[in-house]
Write the structure tokens for this entry.
Amino acid sequence: MSRVSKHNKVMSVKEAVEKFVFDGAIIGMGGQNVSRCAVSIAHEIIRQGKRGLVLTGCNLSIHMDLMVGAGLVRKCELGLAGLGRFGATYQFKRAIEEGRLEAEDFDHLTMVSRFLAGEMGIPFIPVRGLMGSDILKYQGPSTGKKFEVIDNPWNRGERIVLVPAMQPDVSIVHVQKADEIGNTIIQGIASHEPELIRASNTTIVSCEEIVSTSFFRSHSDYTTIPYHYIDAVIEQPFGAYPTSTYGYYTFDADHIGSYQEYARAGGEEYMKYMDEYVYGCKTFSDFLEKSGGIKKLNQLRKEMLRLM
Amino acid sequence: MEKRYSEDYTREELMSIEASRFIKSTDTVILGTGLPLVAAIFAQKTHAPGVNFVVESGSIDPILPSAPFTVADPAIGHMAVKTGSLRDVLGCLVQRGLVDIGFLGGAEIDQFGNINSTCIGDPRRPKVRLPGSGGANCIASCVPKILVITRHERRRFPSRVQFITSPGYIDGPDGRQKAGLKMTKPEIIVVTDLCAMEIDRSTGTLRVTKLMPGITVGQVYENTGFKPAVSEHVGAVEPPTEEEIRILREEVDPKRIYLKVSPTAI
């Protein structure tokens, strides 16, 4: 069945990762910083031990750091890696400093433009930035041609940078609402995800709640991405925890802060976190339970409702 | 009414207020996390009520009652006229040329106003990996007025940055033009705890224009890895008034997320 067909795409995260994520895949990472990171899908990829991965996105955050920390990632192609006020993504930082991870740096607009080219099926796209920066001077050993500078054919003498389209093998994105055939709603800030999802050859979405297709048909202007681009739908409330999902819950500063301590310490200390919270959890619900359960989640939900 | 100057303020507070003075009521400002958020919200609550904010992750003209935790905080979309995407903001506003002021920060800024937020050491195997560009390169390339707020330390102000993440004037007055950037002569303003510096367009280098209260040019030299020119009419940064400090503490950053007495991470 083709992804564009209207079949029921609801499955478990285990099934979705088995089916669509493979060793060596280029994975498009939804979410950013403390917002809507696809943590439940990242956990499952780690449990299944998919290897040699390339992660791509704009602001690669805690879900990237977890996958790097698990030793599954070969390369990141990114705009930025970090957790803002919570500090660096320490596993990423350490892996690069120790020569275990390749980074291909672009900037946010360049990455989103590459996804934009990817989603429109064109091979490359111009961007105004990058010129004069060292982003154009260096590139990772496994990157082919990183960019080209051309003379604008319609305005001779104006130089402009071209960057190649990016079409990830599979993207992992957490959203607020989806229906069972894959129509998707992102509420609040959408970051790079509209372009990312349509650029990807397959996309797994986890959502806070599955709603009916008739809801979409009667509110079609709410649809962020129609079903044609979605291959798997997972219903996972709190699926972005410990990051936030706008309209549903805020981020858990305590858990992220604690993760940062383990990630910064590295080595055996870090493995304690992984054993406890990822490998030691059969499902994402186990993880939520271990992280404070209903009491904590209610508190994060209340905090979000207060914001709205 | 006579101005009552505050005698109890921190360096971070004055840096934020001084940076805010460069923001006008008609400006569209792209926000960044940290003191830039404080400076921008302060400007909106005081002398620039009409200023409008955009945030790279997609929030367009939010109303921010106080400083959110990060620019990815769910609160960053509060009362926005549109919560859109990164392309909406960095593409259709910044690259399109519709943003007046951008805030940047980094580990290093050099005499030409180039900023490094990528790495220290050989980029192929860096000694210290930093977060990377994010929206910074695009903002540095396309926005006509760049504001930087940073602590003034020698290691933060080398003569040349180790990696140009965000171009200033690159290597001289025509550096940007030679590199092919369309925005050839942006203003670059750097506010530190010692002074304010601005790019001199004729040399493409930073020049000290104002000193913080009680600070000498000698102290600036001591803490800078290059020898900045000093404006002939170097002035003093106006200290904050009691009312400004009250607004900053009670309204802009009541949770003291950014304005602690301890060093501020920028």
Observations:
- Chain A has a mean pLDDT of 97.
- The CA atoms of residues 208 and 237 of chain A lie 4 Å apart.
- Chain A touches chain B through 60 residues (CB under 8 Å).
- Chain A has one domain: 13-107+167-307.
